[in-house]
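Weekly modeling sync, notes
Attendees: S.R. (lead), two postdocs, one rotation student

Agenda item 3: backlog of single-chain predictions. S.R. asked that every request posted to the team notebook include the full sequence so nobody has to chase files. The rotation student volunteered to paste the first one in as an example of the format we agreed on. Action items at the bottom.

Example entry:
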Amino acid sequence: ARGAVAVALAFVALYSLLPHKELRFIFPALPLLNVAAAAAVGRCLRWKGYTGFLARLALAALAAASLAVAVAMSAASASNYPGGHALLSLHSAEAQRGAAARPLRVHIGNLAATTGVSRFLELDPTWEYSKEENLTIDDLASRGFDRLLTEWPEVPGYRCQALIKGFERISLRRGLLPIPVPVPALVLADKVYVLEKDPEGSTHPCDAKSPIWN
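Predicted structure, as returned to the notebook:
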């Protein structure tokens, strides 16, 4: 087990020297750490008496904590793609309105483009999808796009069609148990706003009363 840990730590140390670092770079080292952890658990389970009881109790607590973190992180990841959700919901909403056959010019803002939007979600061949970068609010107002997936809740000449919430942070809240045990909870916030060009040129920003596409 010590050899596996040494190899894994050396692998991580070498990759740490790279100027560009990503978590996925160290994934190959995780199985070695799992082997070492399994060896340590096996040793703890062989302990007898009071020490063995405490070891088993600690292992159960670690397993429960690991499961809770995994569930929380999975929920956070699922709500971390408001851009992709916005584009899929826009296709569905326009189809329900009978506008699926009408070509639309849709601008995808920076936040939407980096939170789930990809070429695979450009489902309508008659639509024009724009990912032009560094556009200001005035630029968006003057380009004549039919729909905007933007991080700005208000653009002149557009009305709010819907807003999409996304992951903001994880907070600890008091649970329902009699014992005041803190329970992790997801905090969502408005992330992407879907704006529709108003035929009369009026401006109706997204606010707390706007529809939410879940």
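Discussion: group reviewed the output briefly. The CA atoms of residues 84 and 118 lie 8 Å apart.
Action items: rotation student to repeat for the remaining queue; S.R. to check formatting next week.
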